[in-house]
Amino acid sequence: MTEDPFLVTGLCLYVAAERFGARLFPAWLILLEILLFTSLLLVSAEGAEARIRGIILGAVIIGAAWVLGIRTQRMRYETERNARALERLRLARDIHDVLSHTLGGIGVRAGVVAHVKSSTTDDLRSALQGIESDARDALGQLQVLMRQERSETGDDAPPGSLPELVRELSQPVIRAGISVVVDADESAQDLPAAQRTTAYRIIQEALTNVIRHSGAETCRITIRTEEGDLRISVLDDGPGTALASRNGHGLTGMRERAQLLGGTFEAGRDANGYRVAVSLPGTAGRVHSR
């Protein structure tokens, strides 16, 4: 047991403030200090100087313990609030990616049907079936996102290897009349969850831009791993993908996803067309936090 009762009192006050406190200097705490130190002043048999020194030390211990507890509580609440805000931002970005990708494909397909006067009944039926399939896929992905939000698994991409998922993502692009080539090495079949999820969402958004903005005829997706790092390239030969950098937040979202994992992101036109290039590190220790 400590010889100074104010140390035990301070510890108890710290715990109480950290769990239940609301104000930095509540009136009852001031009243408690006055009562305690009045009693100490009257009851203590020590000299006046020693009593005053003990009163000052006790006041500092009790006051500091309460204030520190309140500060700790507020820091914890602030950390939790920031974490919730970041999680809402991540979920909103994922929903944006899913809906923009699906609605982009649906819009292109519906536009083709609406403007082709020679469409037969079979053509219309096929287009509607494709739109239904895209809509069901989007609903399925949204349900997966909601389940993972509740379970906090952290992996928000559908199950499967990245090359398989990319081929599925390519289907709306192909149905929009754009030829897609997926070139992935064998090591891309088995990736860490963080790399796989981030790569999936970035490629999804890049393909959405290809459908909506590029006017391309072909699109080539290259996936390589080099010493654990994942390198992705989405290249199309269309003239208009750069519009995506001025309209909407697609490129910003892709860049933020790459940076959160400690990676790099580049987008722009080169001699072969418009390219989105991403590099994602494979070492967990290099992941950046926000």
Radius of gyration over C-alpha positions, nearest whole angstrom: 30 Å
CATH topology of the largest domain: Heat Shock Protein 90
Question: Which stretches of 5+ consecutive residues score pLDDT under 50?
Answer: 284-290
Note the quaternary state here: single chain
Strand content: 5-15%
Helix content: 55-70%
| H-E string | HHHHHEHEEHEE
Derived structural class: alpha+beta
When the domains are counted, the total is 2
Mean pLDDT: 75
Major sheet: order of its strands?
1-2-3-5-4
CATH architecture classification of the largest domain:
2-Layer Sandwich
Major beta-sheet overview = 5 strands, mixed
Q: How far from one another are the termini?
A: 43 Å
Question: How many beta-strand segments?
Answer: 5
Count of separate DSSP helical elements:
7
CATH class of the largest domain: Alpha Beta
Query: What is the molecular shape?
Result: elongated
| The named CATH superfamily of the largest domain | Histidine kinase-like ATPase, C-terminal domain
Quick structural overview:
This protein has 290 residues and is of the alpha+beta class. It has 2 domains: 75 residues; 130 residues, Histidine kinase-like ATPase, C-terminal domain (Heat Shock Protein 90), CATH 3.30.565.10.
